User: Fold these one by one.
Assistant:
Number 1:
Amino acid sequence: MRFLMGFLKLNQDKEKMKIPKSVQKAIPIKRIYENGTFQVGRNNYSKSYRFTDINYIVADKEEQEMIAIDYGSILNLLDYSLLPKITIVNRKLNGIDFENKIKMQLGNDNLTKYRKEFNNMLLQNTMEAQGIIQEKIMTITVNKRKVEDAEMCLNRTSAELSNGFSKLGSKITELDINERLRVFHDFFRTGEEDLYNFDIKKTMQKGHSFKDYICPDIFEFKTDFFKMGNRYGRVLFIKEFANFLNDDIISELTDLNKNMMLSIDMKAVPIEEAIKLANDKIMAVETDIARWQKSQNENGNFSAEIPFELQKQREESKEFLEDLMTRDQKMFLATITIVHTANTKEELDNDTENLKAIAGKRMCQLGIFNYQQLDGLNTVLPYGINQIKLNRTLTTESLSSFMPFKVQEVQDTNGIFYGKNIISKNMILIDRHELLNGNSFILGVSRKWKKFYSKARDYGNSVAG
């Protein structure tokens, strides 16, 4: 078979007995395939892609406007049959990341003691940055009867996304089965990231379920929070939007140095249906205005002005229709959800209040899912499903205001520490051997260790090479 199922039907009854019902519902994946495709419904298949960040915040206003236009073009490329989801993942730096990407190999020569000192400096800077790594993932879900048809559609979409993101200066890569399951494992089993070593073939041979490997030891869902192993979590959603959407609200919400995920679920509405809905809204507003004027005339008040609220609804509905018909805008149904976890219930409550305060500064309101924590969790995680019916109607331009980009990180594998990113506070790690032009210059006042700094870089690059 060209694909591998994550669990065998022969062992299905046995696996259901092993896995608690709460975990079965909390991990709504029916099958997994070796290329990274998930079956997440009867005929729903999803695939995830990781995309790199770009320098949006530090760009000037004109550049930001061009980036927003190009990002809106990517959203318009997506077919009406697709269900896209943008997920921003904040996770703690684990030992594997530090060992493989950051830490310098000690070697066995007279420079070993300097490498040890360099590694200690890296570890200290990692701790000062609170060890948070941010990943950006796009998940695409398609409804097809057969997995072959779904993969054909997803592959075509992948090529379109690759071209669109390359115009932005970003790079998008498809996640295989191990990379995709790693996202869920690190979330469900915080503190055990170093233990991840999933092998789908060995799992099949043993007749085990992949859910055993990634799920926490226990799930308890309460009214407004849940307990996952020995950690606490809570799912929130943006309840009220500001009249004027700021393009930095997503970056500010995800600036919290905690384990968390923020997802933007989108569904494009066919243009004919969108225009019909806009016309129906205009007719409803005009009917309300005519009814109000009739009541005023019956009372002899012929000069009364239309109430401000009705005037505002009339202007907004006409502007919305104009955007659809003349400005090449699409109509989207969007849902924004957030999940964050903490070691204690008190810490969880404090983090929730901080997130609410951040949203409040941007005139948005965060709400907590009461009695819907499980559905909210399944929605925010990048499975590719949306179990929450709290959609907000937005045009392409409005949706692109929820900008997932912030600032580009430079963290080459086996790179040398060159300082900190002034915005994200993360380390800058550069491997000069991977650059087209590896030359550099050092600026500084006299007697400020420029020569020592240069030699340290030379030693580091020689080891990295």
Number 2:
Amino acid sequence: MSVFVAVDQIDKVFELTGGGQYIALKGIDLQIKKGEFVSLIGHSGCGKSTLLNMIAGLDLPTDGLVTLEGQRITRPGPDRMVVFQNYSLLPWRTVRENIALAVDSVLNGMPAGERKAIVEKHIDMVGLRPHADKQPGMLSGGQKQRVAIARALAIRPKLLLLDEPFGALDALTRGNLQEQLMQICEENQVTAVMVTHDVDEAVLLSDRIVMLTNGPESKIGDILEVDIPRPRKRMEVVEHPSYYSLRSEMIYFLNQQKRIKKIRARKTAAISRHGLEKVNLEIGFLPLTACAPLAIAKEKGFFTKHGLDEVNLVRESSWRGIVDGMSGGYLDAAQMPSGMPMWLSLGGNKNQPLPVVTSLTMTRNGNAITLAKRFYDEGVRTLSDFKQYLLRTRDQRHTMGVVHPASMHNLLLRY
């Protein structure tokens, strides 16, 4: 499929009241295909709604451009309809009249009978026939949001934009509306972009999930492809093999962004004293015995003794956290397996080479192979026994677990 919406290297800069600038978005590059459902996710303040507003034409990028079917977006238009979290309905008009207002304004060249038929069709589409003559004040939150969705779709937009459309709804109403929205989008081949904070909602509705880093200068941190086939049912999606891996990936990303925010708040401009290039360092570690030299150096004041006055030890939960910290620049150094510096330098992380300096190897000892109980039952007691077992079962497939591609565990097991 060809590119339907193109966001081409856009920056968004806001002028501050007291002078200076705030760079909200930096170098955003995104292509959306026709019929695709894309979700934008990230922490508050990362620029999700700002990006959505620029696609809608409600705001313009400071640099770069946004196009729809090759045409530059410079202002709002009926080919892009936005569904807001606050419904945005006229309180003195009924459900039917709110939808008709949009249809009569945009499709005014169409005969009145056809316009009326479109209004009635969309009332039925969102299941509001019993409430068609009620004003918004007589409707529940979920019913109001259905009116907003019907109004948006009734004018046949090329692109549907949703800004946290279900954020204010209770769980049951939200779930029902999510399924209705999926059905409507699939039946009408709607192209949609949605802002959300809900990881489960993103997995359920999306073809792709765009994850934005924290501001200022928010960027696209990663894009997840959702390979769960359609049509999808909310209660069945959780049974798909990819569901929990996608969900875990988003939660990991959001947690990392939260931690990065805390570290950046602590981390001031580079300080140089005592003839050293920098004395305020963030050093990552995993709570393993190999981190003992770092912990002792911190507790015994060795860093301070050598002029490193502001060293923070940052506990990570996995080697991936160490890698992301080094790649993202919010860790200055880290305890890591001896093979990891070379792995990083050669582009082992997403084929992006990151030259690093390794000053010493803390340990290569203490590694062992841990086998499942069935090996013990097979008589495997020593490394020699294990070797003989592998030779006897060379026609079978054996799976070994390692903590990281660059770990000593991997090297030793291969040896």
Number 3:
Amino acid sequence: MSAKESLSAGSSGVHQVPLQEAVPLQIDPFSMDFFADPHPAHHVMREAAPVVYFPMWKTYGVARYEEVHAVLHDPQTYCSSRGVGLSDFAKEKPWRPASLILEADPPAHGRTRAVLSRVLSPAVMKPLRESFVVAADACVDQLLQRQSFDGIKDLAEAFPLSVFPDALGLKKDGREHLIPYAALVFNSFGPPNALRQRAQELSAPHQAYVQAQCQRENLAEGGIGAKIHACADTGEITPAEAPLLVRSLLSAGLDTTVYGIGAALYCLARYPAEWQRLRADLSLARNAFEEAVRFESPVQTFFRTTTKDVVLGNTAIPEGEKVLMFLASANRDPRRWDNPDQFDITRRASGHVGFGSGIHMCVGQLLARLEGEVMLHALARRVATLEITGPVTRAFNNTLRGLEALPLTIKAA
């Protein structure tokens, strides 16, 4: 009996519900044209079927919210340990040691996840808020003096780089390697295209820096990195695991925040009514960042691998197949959201999958949300107008979506 036949049969072996085929699409979700404007393709995928198939990459895809959410919340059926990119770790060696968080399944995932959840808990975030607010105000002060600047390099990158490495306890030298390293990680989740090859060709110094920074002797006492290593003293993790957990934060704790803040700036500059709404009610700063993450989805996609024959969206998927989740498409699925293509900072955006969902939900989400909130609060409190005053250019990445340059001009309130 084929996988499809067995999955469409009841316990008696009698066919219960007719299954449909995954609809094949000649869309390349890793092409430059797709990256430039993925929304039309997202619409095609959502309307085609609950589950689609990309012959060129031999992978299934889900673009509707319901199916994306289902995959994220069933780690037993859709595993991460075989890689959350196109590469299948059961068939090829990972380009680096697998992540103990992102590329792990229960029960192993739960043990290491508990450590990161504690060192990044709300109780840890609370004392960080004050220093983040001071840094955000200082950043806005400097930008108000200049009035015109690049919203990406001078704000979306500059602010997280001024607070995140210190919170982690990194040394001052070499921090310029952090963003290229994160770009390498997220490009490596895609196929062996030009983006991935270029990132890996240039990766040696970035990988060497990160590997060194993950070691206990290079992390400042009291920082988040040192707290991770301290868990090895109590036996919660091994000394060999501690550097890998620090690496997880260095891999995913910066670029996603940079892209998130960049997305918020881009949205608020394009929607001046929403900017004025935020200025009138500063308590909306957190929600404005949340809506920007839903609307622009800095993390666009992730893969899972089926651990058994399964039915998803009334479609049979055999064991050992890659399933590509389009998080960004789910975040604009009209089946889930009213007016999904409208940027609305008062929207109840909770439930979006911009930070993932389920057991693998972004472990650094509290840190990212804190950085996004305090920066938008600082800007809205002191800036009257936010205007795009030059060509906006995209940054292309196999997994992330963001901007390379965002020329802005601001005026003091």
